[in-house]
Amino acid sequence: MTNCPLCGKGDSRSFPIYYMLKDRRFSARKCNNCRFIFIDPRPTDADLGLMYSDEYFLFDGADFGAHSSTDYETAAIRGSVKFPIILGAIKRIKPAGKFFEVGCGMGYFLNYAKNNGYDVSGIEYAALGAEACRSKFGLDVQQSSFEAWKVVPEAYDVIFLGDVLEHLVDPLSMLKKAHEMLKPGGVVAAEVPSTFNSIVGRLAVTGMDLLGKERKMSMPPYHVNEFTPGTLRKALKGSGYSQIRIIQRVKAPSTITLRGSKFDRAVKKSLQYPNYFVTKSMGVLGDRLLGLGIK
Ligand SMILES: [Zn+2]
What we know:
By secondary structure, the chain is an alpha/beta fold. It has helices at about 45-50, 55, 70-80, 85-90, 110-115, 125-135, 170-180, 200-210, 230-240, 260-280, and strands spanning about 10-20, 25-30, 35-40, 95-100, 120-125, 140-145, 155-160, 180-195, 215, 225, 240-250, 290-295.
């Protein structure tokens, strides 16, 4: 059994979702100490190499969400509605300076930051994305994992990780690496999904626990961690950041993609409006989190 990637303790219980990759099962666990949700076993370097290779990453036949060629670009463009919210939150802390993005995808957000006055650069693990960043926007983006990237100490004012932490086998050490790379007073910003923090997500987990069932997720195990506001805060704190702030949002009901059975979709649809209202007015139960911390 894998120890908790957040607190290191070995005491965890099953969490009712799992993924499959080449007939191997990756089950979700929830830490009994810090409540972090993670998949076990952790994917190996070979698994990750396969999952992020062009032929696999671009495979359109399965329901890979944002992780397929057409969806990848569409999701990047559709995701741009949230750019002003995310960059606005960063700008209130650091309005200008050297901006490094880990996992730039197709480069849309990094280009947006550049157009808003930052001196930008970044890395992207998928070769397809890194190439798109350079050819489409002329951005200074190298193809690399963050794990393999050489630390340049105290070089940046802002480090942004958008939809990255949920993919990392050791998110804590990567947040510490970002901390080393920030100038004193620099800001880290990490945007993550938080599916099981929303009303529908909470109900689904409660329902499956009651029924003793587990749900097979339709994607390969790209998401090896599931953050909540509490565990995102702990991850930032545990990596040395201070003045931590977690901003919760929920996707607007008109923009959500509905998957699953007719019943699933009906439940999701009917609960998305109240969820949207609650998150907007009270800042809780969001399915998207932006965590901010200062070095
Ligand atoms: Zn833990």
